[in-house]
Every structure is written in C-alpha cells, then in structure tokens.
Amino acid sequence: MSDRILTKHWGEPDSYTLAGYERIGGYKTAPEAFKRTPDDIVAEVTKGNLRGRGGAGFSTGMKWSFVRKEKATPKYLVINADEGEPGTFKDRYVLELDPHRFIEGCIIGAYALDCHAVYVYCRGEFEPGPITRLKAAITEARARGYLGPSVFGTGYAIEMHVHRGAGAYICGEETALLESLEGKKGFPRLKPPFPANAGLFGKPTAVNNVETLANIPTILQMGGDAYHALGCPKNGGTRLFCMSGHLVKPGVVEAPMGATFRELIYDRCGGIPGGKKLKAIIPGGSSSAVLSADQVDLKSDFDTLKGAKTMAGSGGVIVLDETVDMAWALYNVTKFYAHESCGQCTPCREGTGWAARLLKKLVDGRGEKGDVDLIYNIARQGEQRTICALFDGAAMPLKSYIEKFRADFDSKVKA
Amino acid sequence: MVASPFNPEQQARFDAELEAALARFPPERSQAALLPALHAAQRELGWLSTETLSYVATRLKLWSTRVREVAAFYTLFRLKPVGTNHLQICTNLSCALLGGEKLLEQACTRVGARPHEISADGKFSVEPVSCLASCGTAPAMQVNDRYFDEKLTPEKLDAIISELERVG
Ligand SMILES: Cc1cc2nc3c(=O)[nH]c(=O)nc-3n(C[C@H](O)[C@H](O)[C@H](O)COP(=O)(O)O)c2cc1C
Ligand code: FES
After folding, report:
1. Same domain for A258 and A221?
2. Based on the structure, what is the number of domains in chain B?
3. Domain, as residue range, for B60
4. Is the pLDDT of residue A352 over 70?
5. Do residues A117 and A80 make contact, with C-beta atoms less than 8 angstroms apart?
C-alpha cells in the first residue's frame, strides 16, 4: 500500500459524499467491527501504536482502555475539531474532503467505548466549509442507517452531534473544550480527574482529535501490526503534515510517521522559494520549540522530537527562510498567546503579555540591556506552573528562539 | 418576561435551532445549548445586544450575567455591531510570513476604519483574527461566513473590497 491513506481520494470531485467514500471501500470496516468485542478493538488500536494527532501524542488505545475501565454511564466520545494551533490546517481538510472516513472512525470508536453519543466540537470559523460538509455527511450516513437507533442493523444506537465553538484557542485544550461544550466559558479544569474518569457532564469521556479518528478504519482493516509498520517504532501509521511558511508548494502532505524534515520540506514541498536558505523549522505548531536549519534531518515522530526538546504536536510545520528576523517571529507568536490566554492563571495571564510587550520593545528598536534575559526568565519561571499547557506552549518558543537565535535578539539591544 | 428581539420569521428560525440544540443534550443539561442559542441569535440580528442576551437567558433559565459573561469570553460573539462586510484577516505566523499584517493595514486604510471600528458608511469593519486553519494557502481572510484563503495578495484584496463595495 502506498503511504496515502487519509488523503487517498482527496482529489476526486465527490470525495466528500457517501457514494464517493463507498467507491473506495468505505463503510466496509465498521460492520465487521461490530462482530468483534470492544476490548478486542481497543487492543488492535493499541497494537497499531496510534498516537493522538491533536498535540500530545498520547496512545489512543490506552486512552480508550481508561474509559472502558470506568463504571459510570453514559460514556461519551468527544471529538476535538477546534483546530486552532497556528500552522495547523489538516482536520479542516479531513472534514471537508473525507468526512465519511472520520464518521466511520467515530462509529467504531463509539462502539469500542460503549458510548452512544458522539459530540464533534468544531471551531466556529469552520461554519462555511467543514461544518456544512460534516453535517451533510452525518445526515447522509443516518439516512442509510449507518448512524441512528440501530447502526448497520446491529441494534446499537449512535448519534453524532456537531457543536459549534465561538472563537477561542483555549477551547482546543480538552478540558476547556468540555467546559465550553457544557455552555460555559472555556476555562481549563484542574487535572486530575482526567476526562477519561470525569469528563463531559462528569461522565467518562474520551476526547480525541479528528485525524486520530480518521485513522481507525485503516487500523482495523489492515490490523494493528501492519498499521504500526507504516510508521516508525511506537509511532504507527501516516500523518497529515501541515506544511506552511516559506515553501514552494505548501499544503497538507501525508507521509509516514517519522518522515524527516528534509523529506517533507525538499522532497514533498519543493524546498524554499527563490533559492533562499533555510533558517528555522517550527516542527509541531507554533507552541513547539523551534529547530535550527542543521536539524533538518531529524525524524518527525513524537519520540524523536521529544528527545530533541521540542514536540511533534499538531503536525503544523512552519518553515522560515534566512530573511526572517527571529525576534519579530517570536513577537508574532507571543502576541497570539497573550491574546488567547484565558486569564485563569497568573503566570500565563501576566507572563504572556509582559513577554510580548518586551519583545515589541526589541522589535521597535527600544530594547535595553537585560530585556532578553528577562524574557527568557519569564518563560522559565512560569513553565509547568499553570492549570493547562497553554503557557508551556508560549514558553517553548520563548526559550528556544532565544537559545538558538540569540544574535537576532542581542542585535536589537541599544548599546 | 423579557421581550423577544426577533420578528416572527426570525423567531421561528431561532426557536427551531434552540429546540434542536436542547434535544442534543440530556434534559438537565440545558445550559449546553447556550452557545448554539447565541449563534442562532447572532445569525438573525448580526450582533448580541444586552436585550438579546437577556432574552436568551430567559429562554434557557439562566442568569443574564452568566450569559453575558459567556458571550464576552468568545471572540465570535459580537457585543457591538459590525459592518455589513466584516473582514477578518489572519496575522498569525504562517500568514504574517507572507504579508498578513500588511494586508490588515491595507484593508483598514482602504475602508477608512481602524481595527474593531466600522467604516462611516457602515459597509465595512476590519479586524485581525487568530489562525483560520488556512496556513497552507496563506495569507488568509474571512469575510462574514466566507473564506478567502486563496493566497491573498494586495491586488486580490483590493479587488475583493471593490466587489463588496459594489454589491453592498
Ligand atoms: C492550549 C491548547 C490548545 C489545544 N488545541 C487543540 C486543538 O485545537 N485540537 C486538538 O485536537 N487538540 C488540541 N489540544 C490538545 C488537546 O488538549 C488533547 O490533547 C487532544 O484533543 C486529545 O486528542 P488526541 O489524543 O486524539 O490527540 C490543545 C491543547 C492545549 C494545551
Ligand atoms: S496562520 Fe493564518 S491561517 Fe493559520
């Protein structure tokens, strides 16, 4: 099989219809899955080494086994379609171009989790394209009896509901998402308890990313071992890499987990325009620590990047050429976190804004001695001291841009 | 009872949306229908006035302060009116690398309104927006509920604004 699974028929004009999906063998896996036990399905997913595609890269099989262990009912499957991490734009295409693959994954997931209600929390801006397509696809699937009171005639009921968010990056954080789904402000919850133990309405809940679910039919079709073999050790399958920034051919690229950045940038995206040199790579959305050009041969899987003190995150790869001033780039990124901080925790509420103001000073040529170290220390001192990981996502760029590109900062300090 | 801000047609659409939203959740969890209700109200009226927020609160049996607090948390809910054409231009990194910030300035100058203000003729408002998940086709812009993420350029932006001026 080629390394195109999730993007297999994206080019076809009716890829988003039920007929288009069935033509490539869609909706054949879910009915078979109902003949297996839920535990068996979770074991297969675990064997496939599917790692969550939303950011944290947690084992999906393991997350599902935690939910299965809980006694309370009902249980919920909540899909994170908030896709707000700057540099990330894949879930949108899954929903627009191949919603039925995702729905089939949700059907199998719901059955494996003993759950009957799936909520898809979509970012509000997705209304015109992805939400419209997804709703139409759900209606189509329901009309066929693939969703509804007796899915595939099995007597097992599954309803899928689309819920529209309203423009808040923080609602991509899974517990803030649950709060928002309950009709509240998107304030992240203290963990534990984790959503698997007490999630939506206090019930056991699996929160998973769109792309994660879109992989489920393939895992059951080819078996966990074969799926694992598509990727690299402990990182099964292929991944949708969101390639943006200074690239000849930006866009979503499907490649095996662990493809190197050189392959992604030069082989798949045509390299950097105008023959310019590579300066930096942001490997996993704007929250990840930056890589320097000499790290271009690193593999892109969760474990390799963790070893390199950054993260594979959401798969959002932003490529910066030699003309980019890293102090300007860091100001841009930090402004975003300052704007999106929910304000619950002091280090994040104050720290992101403070760092952004100092960076503005530097970029405007008003930098003073000590400013760069102060920015660095704001990041270091707030890290891991907040309820959620938003601040860590601001701290990783703050620290790494300064560590790796110090000259771009020091040059802006008045002598 | 707080008076409804809707005319009869709007009322029918709002009621239908609210009912559908409530049906998606357990009966004792009606607050979960709050975001859908606010979206439905804003779709009918363009923005959410204090009266509208109070009305939504009554329908869901919530405190109106609670409803206001939730509405104010989310950037898509507008607590004051916007222009007929609401231009949202992404200025996050992937877009900024390819000129997003300059496009924002250009749009403001062209329509004669600063970010978060409305142009004198009421036709336009412009604001920066967080990543629209269109980074592969950056720079990206959304106008009301339409995407314009086809690699926006100064020329394309000018043409789009001219077109919007013509149609209203
Ligand atoms: C600030 C913040 C924003 C996040 N935004 C998203 C998002 O937009 N989409 C997403 O799938 N996960 C996002 N996550 C990760 C989720 O919290 C969660 O790990 C994920 O939805 C789990 O699904 P997965 O295991 O399938 O990846 C975010 C996390 C943080 C801390
Ligand atoms: S950074 Fe502009 S759309 Fe993502």
Report:
1. no
2. 2
3. 8-73
4. yes
5. no
Number of structural domains, chain A?
3
Whose alpha carbon is nearest atom 30 of ligand 1? A173
pTM of the model: 0.97
Give the C-alpha separation, A216 to A366, whole Å: 53
For residue A7, tell me if it sits in a domain.
Answer: no
CATH classification of the domain holding A200: 3.40.50.11540
A250 at interface of B, judged by CB pairs closer than 8 A: yes
Report the complex ipTM.
0.96
> Does one domain contain both B93 and B36?
no
Q: What is the pLDDT of residue A1?
A: 42
Q: Is B57 found in the same domain as B98?
A: no
Query: What pLDDT digit, counting tens, does each position of B110-151 carry?
Result: 999 999 999 999 999 999 999 999 999 999 999 987 877 779
Pure H helices in A287-415: 302-307, 326-340, 346-363, 371-382, 390-404, 406-410
d(CA A62, ligand 1 centre) in Å:
16
The answer to whether the CB atoms of B97 and A246 lie below 8 A apart is yes
Residue A49, Ramachandran bin (φ over 0: left; ψ between -120 and 50: alpha; else beta): left
Q: B79 is written with which tokens?
A: 């607590």
Q: Are residues A154 and A96 in the same domain?
A: yes
Cβ pair B75:A245 closer than 8 A: no
pLDDT in tens, A52-98: 999 999 999 999 999 999 999 999 999 999 999 999 999 999 999 99
Does B67 share its domain with B94? no
The helix or strand, by DSSP H or E, that contains position B165, with its residue range, turns out to be helix B154-167
> How far does CA A280 lie from the centroid of its chain?
21
